[in-house]
């Protein structure tokens, strides 16, 4: 009698983050129990198992790197895993806390903490890819459960997984959602933002704020010009790019361009 | 046996918490000499990067502080900003905000009870492990969690970092059909939630862990508190949220990146048990009857009954959500228009883990000039240390088995559902005998 084939071993690791992307697992309901039948969860602190240094087939990473200890830890995880997947904006682009990279943040810690000498943090806050090779990036703040399940399924079947890089605008068209920029003059980031969220902001009658990061071939210059045309100041437009995915190169550059040439 | 024993309990990975923490214990001559719950959540510095942002960006920014309770952050923020801008969004928005909060209490409490806390009481390492022997209980918990998430989605598109909130109200009003569908789900969830109350009560010994301490919660004239109320305590304290800083003080202890808060110099508890102790007379009669069936006496000084308090609050939240949705109507507008101006605003709301206090200063254009945010977990941190010190000594474990000491310590920490240690099986013991 042959032994049952070994189940793939996975780990979910947390770095600097809000825990929200791990909830894509924990909010699965009964599918969460189904997943635990398909894979061995070796390390997932929030769900129980803790064994961070054990080798695994797939390591899922939430959060960005902002302390020397985290930089060391991600290198160790990379050495112990076959495939590395980033979960969400923090791990993939640095996330909202990377805003400190854009400011003179060395004065920030003493402003909040009375004993800054005990606060150990790196000068900048970076995505996982700055420290270790990433095999698959799942964008979004937060990622959603459907997106996660599609990726997990593809990985378990051993087929390559492709995340759509379409713009939110295309999603609105497919869903027959009225354009909030055209109909209400709202400063929607949909034209430069990748879909994956289901275009929920325009469906709720509001402007997209780019939480899924840059779409492919995003024309940020044209959008900057359009947003200025809607009455936003240069600083307003810059803050639209420098938000959840401020350190994604396309958005970082678009914000910088506004600084260099305010008259877009 | 060495008289001079240093035990260090180390939390290498802050499971269900934000970040990393450790528990340092030094025991000398059979007494706990030093106890520090150290939190190493890397600083994310939200209060600083809120500066210079526009008022209307705040709800989307503060949600990112916590993926498990983003609703709480959004609610404290909008109330504080509306205070500055003299904006009263009216009864429809008020009702919907209570409904929105009900969703988060149901989701967060169900997750904590079933995925984080119950495995402790039943002797399992994790919920999936526990589900093999107790499938109905775990599935019921996951269903309730799903109902809470569905409520948040109704008003806001997604349950983590919801997109529907704006200063002044909501971006969109739910349509009647969606409300009807959800109402049916809520009604069938209520008996399940009632069953969770008796199940949770059966897990906890009714006596044996009592100790006196201070508890603090909001209190409202007529309702069980969520979005509004005075800040009250069992010490007789009764103040407006605007006076929070006069009585409560945040200190930076060198061993933690979470600031410690004290009330007039003393540790205190916020969260479900504190709320229940101070507000059980505001519960509907049906839920009060349910409590008396469990045999639990309120106010309770037994922190292990926090799991029961969470189950009771799930019932309350379902009860309230059903009541609100039964009277639902589509409004003319789901928000009030806001005109920004310069000023200072302060608000406290009841996050699943307790009072969440925000203060903002704005410029005439409505840019944030200063932000101060006091989350529940930093308020509870001093109380957790105080509880651990007293409970571990009373348990006698500090004289014997280190594993038993670690497990008991973990279980005590999890009673607080710290968003820093959101609580699993994360403690490893490192013993240094000298």
Features of the shown structure:
heterodimer; A: 264 residues; alpha/beta; Rossmann fold; 2 domains; 5 strands; 36% helix; B: 434 residues; alpha+beta; Cytochrome-c3 Hydrogenase, chain B; four-stranded antiparallel beta sheet; three-stranded antiparallel beta sheet; disordered C terminus
Describe the protein's architecture and organization.
The complex is a heterodimer of chains A (264) and B (434). By secondary structure, chain A is an alpha/beta fold. Chain A folds into 2 domains: 9-157, Rossmann fold (3-Layer(aba) Sandwich), CATH 3.40.50.700; 168-260, no CATH class. Chain A contains 12 helices and 5 strands. Chain A has helices at 23-26, 30-38, 68-79, 88-93, 108-112, 145-157, 168-174, 180-184, 200-203, 220-229, 234-241, 249-260; strands spanning 9-14, 40-44, 56-62, 81-87, 136-138. The termini of chain A are far apart. The mean pLDDT of chain A is 90. Chain B is of the alpha+beta class. Chain B has 2 domains: 4-43 and 386-433, no CATH class; 46-379, Cytochrome-c3 Hydrogenase, chain B. Chain B has 13 helices and 14 strands. Chain B has helices at residues 46-49, 58-62, 70-84, 90-122, 127-133, 135-156, 176-203, 244-247, 272-279, 285-294, 306-326, 376-395, 402-415, and strands at 4-10, 21-28, 31-39, 165-166, 169-170, 216-219, 230-233, 238-239, 248-251, 260-263, 343-351, 354-362, 368-374, 428-433. Chain B starts with a strand and ends with a strand. Residues 11-19 and 420-434 of chain B have low confidence and may be disordered. The interface between A and B is large, with 63 and 68 residues.
Protein structure class of chain B: alpha+beta
Overall, the morphology of chain A is globular
CATH homologous superfamily classification of the largest domain in chain B: Cytochrome-c3 Hydrogenase, chain B
Low-confidence stretches of chain B: 11-19, 420-434
Number of helices of chain B: 13
Predict the CATH topology of the largest domain in chain B. Answer: Cytochrome-c3 Hydrogenase, chain B
Please give the alpha-carbon distance between the first and last residues of chain A: 71 Å
Strand order of the largest sheet of chain B: 3-2-1-14
């Amino acid at each position: 009698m042959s032994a049952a084939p070994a189940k793939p071993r996975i780990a979910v690791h947390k770095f600097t983050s809000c825990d929200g992307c791990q909830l894509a697992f924990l909010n699965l309901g009964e599918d969460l129990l189904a997943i635990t039948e398909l894979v061995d969860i070796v390390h997932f602190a929030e769900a129980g198992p803790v064994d961070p240094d054990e080798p695994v087939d797939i390591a899922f990473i939430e959060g960005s790197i902002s302390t020397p200890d985290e930089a060391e830890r991600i290198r160790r995880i990379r050495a112990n895993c076959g495939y590395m997947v980033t979960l969400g904006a923090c791990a993939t682009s640095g996330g909202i806390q990377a805003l400190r990279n854009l400011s003179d943040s060395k004065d920030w810690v003493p402003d909040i903490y009375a004993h800054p000498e005990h606060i150990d943090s790196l000068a900048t806050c970076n995505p996982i890819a700055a420290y270790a090779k990433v095999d698959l990036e799942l964008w979004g703040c937060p990622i959603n459960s459907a997106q996660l399940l599609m990726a997990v399924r593809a990985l378990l079947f051993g087929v390559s997984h492709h995340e759509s890089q379409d713009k939110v605008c295309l999603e609105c068209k497919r869903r027959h959602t009225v354009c909030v920029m055209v109909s209400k003059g709202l400063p929607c980031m949909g034209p430069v933002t990748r879909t994956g969220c289901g275009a929920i902001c325009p469906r709720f009658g509001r402007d997209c704020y780019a939480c899924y990061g840059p779409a492919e071939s995003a024309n940020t210059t044209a959008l900057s010009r359009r947003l200025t045309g809607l009455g936003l100041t240069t600083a307003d437009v810059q803050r639209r790019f420098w938000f959840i995915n401020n350190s994604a190169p396309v958005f970082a550059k678009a914000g910088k361009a506004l600084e260099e040439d305010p008259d877009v | 046996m060495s008289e001079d024993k240093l035990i260090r309990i180390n939390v290498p990975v802050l499971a269900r918490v934000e970040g990393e923490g450790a528990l340092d214990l030094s025991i000398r001559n059979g007494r706990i000499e030093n106890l520090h719950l150290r939190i190493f959540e890397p600083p994310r510095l939200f209060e600083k990067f809120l500066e210079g942002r526009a008022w209307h960006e705040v709800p989307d920014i503060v949600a990112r502080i916590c993926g498990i309770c983003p609703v709480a952050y959004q609610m404290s923020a909008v109330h504080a900003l509306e205070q500055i801008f003299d904006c009263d969004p009216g009864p429809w928005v008020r009702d919907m905000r209570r409904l929105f909060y009900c969703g988060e209490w149901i989701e967060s409490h169900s997750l904590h009870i079933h995925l984080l806390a119950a495995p402790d009481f039943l002797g399992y390492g994790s919920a999936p492990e526990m589900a093999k022997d107790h499938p109905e209980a775990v599935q019921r918990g996951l269903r309730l969690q799903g109902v809470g998430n569905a409520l948040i989605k109704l008003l806001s598109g997604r349950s983590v970092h919801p997109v529907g909130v704006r200063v002044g109200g909501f971006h969109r009003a739910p349509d009647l059909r969606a409300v009807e569908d959800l109402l049916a789900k809520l009604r069938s969830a209520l008996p399940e939630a009632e069953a969770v109350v008796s199940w949770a009560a059966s897990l906890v010994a009714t006596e044996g862990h009592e100790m006196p301490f201070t508890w603090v919660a909001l209190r409202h004239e007529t309702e069980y508190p969520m979005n509004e109320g005075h800040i009250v305590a069992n010490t007789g304290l009764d103040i407006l949220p605007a006076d929070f800083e006069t009585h409560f003080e945040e200190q930076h202890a060198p061993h933690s990146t979470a600031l410690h808060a004290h009330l007039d110099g003393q540790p205190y508890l916020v969260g479900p048990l504190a709320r229940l102790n101070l507000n059980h007379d505001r519960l509907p009669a049906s839920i009060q009857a349910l409590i008396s069936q469990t045999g639990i006496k309120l106010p309770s000084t037994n922190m292990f009954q926090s799991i029961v308090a969470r189950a009771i609050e799930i019932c309350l939240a379902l009860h309230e959500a059903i009541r609100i949705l039964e009277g639902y109507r589509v409004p003319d507008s789901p928000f009030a228009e806001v005109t920004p101006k310069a000023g200072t605003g302060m608000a406290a709301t009841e996050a699943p883990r307790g009072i969440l206090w925000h203060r903002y200063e704005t410029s005439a254009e409505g840019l944030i000039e200063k932000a101060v945010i006091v989350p529940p977990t930093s308020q509870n941190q001093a109380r957790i240390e105080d509880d651990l010190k007293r409970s571990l000594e009373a348990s006698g474990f500090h004289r014997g088995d280190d594993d038993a000491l670690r497990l008991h310590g973990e279980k005590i920490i999890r009673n607080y559902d710290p968003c820093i240690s959101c609580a699993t099986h994360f403690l490893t013991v490192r013993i240094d005998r000298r």
